[in-house]
Design a protein that fits this description.
This protein is 16% helix and 35% strand. It is of the alpha+beta class. Strands 1, 2, 3, 4, 5, 6, 7, 8, 9, 10 and 11 form an eleven-stranded antiparallel β-sheet that branches. It is globular and about 55 Å long.
């Protein structure tokens, strides 16, 4: 992805969140120069990988297959510290997050506003492929029995609990969705099993200056190369 595209997407996301009365920490809006000035006080933000993140899942077409998100809070796997995480995401209309599951993370996905959030769900086999067996899910803590590959819709205010090992892909209908996630500690490097997506983090073409840092930019900031 081009840095110019990333900069524009972050700024568009800021406007969408504010339009839905969702407010981020003050450092969510910092530019590169402010980060350089404040970096010494932000080691915990860097360590927990908080902040802006996006991916096109290796598709080369973010609008068709991609996701932008902001991690608000997190812990460190196995540290005995904070055991939970929270994200806010924007799911575009017809924009797919492809099939994946997590080995360790259980998560609640919440439609915070906008259109309908649509999931397609499968259990997983021992070989980590799609299962053809029915299974139980919980929407707003009500139990439902669904078939393999069945679609589930969340209207604004509704939430879906995704257990470990449940394959899920999702997209928005009727407009973009402000999508919350409350979960166990998040580890995007080691805890994503994608069925067919080639990658979680995008390669970035630096066609213009960084206006807003992604979590993947922190290493360069700390190392003095940004």
């Amino acid at each position: 992805m081009k840095r110019s595209q990333i900069n524009a997407l972050v700024e568009k996301s800021m406007d969408f969140m504010l339009g839905n009365s969702f407010y981020l920490p003050e450092w969510a809006y910092w530019d590169r120069e402010r980060w350089l000035k404040e970096a010494e006080s932000c080691s915990r933000i860097f360590e927990l990988q908080l902040g802006w993140d996006l991916t096109d899942f290796g598709s080369g077409n973010f609008n068709q297959r991609g996701l932008i998100l902001f991690t608000l809070r997190n812990g460190i796997p196995g540290s005995g510290g904070k055991g939970y995480a929270e994200k806010i995401m924007i799911v575009g209309r017809k924009q797919e997050t492809p099939y994946h599951f997590h080995w360790h993370k259980r998560e609640d996905i919440i439609n915070r506003g906008g259109g309908r959030l649509v999931f397609q769900l499968h259990g997983s086999t021992v070989a980590e492929e799609l299962s053809d067996k029915p299974f139980d899910i919980y929407i707003d803590e009500r139990k439902y029995r669904i078939g393999a590959g069945e679609y589930v819709e969340l209207s604004p205010g509704q939430s879906l609990c995704l257990e470990r090992g449940v394959y899920h892909r999702f997209f928005a209908e009727d407009g973009d969705v402000l999508c919350g996630e409350v979960s166990d500690v998040n580890d995007d490097v080691n805890d994503n099993r994608f069925l067919d997506a080639p990658g979680r983090f995008p390669d970035i073409e630096e066609d213009e200056a960084i206006r807003h840092l992604l979590v993947g930019d922190y290493a360069g900031l700390e190392g003095g190369s940004l």
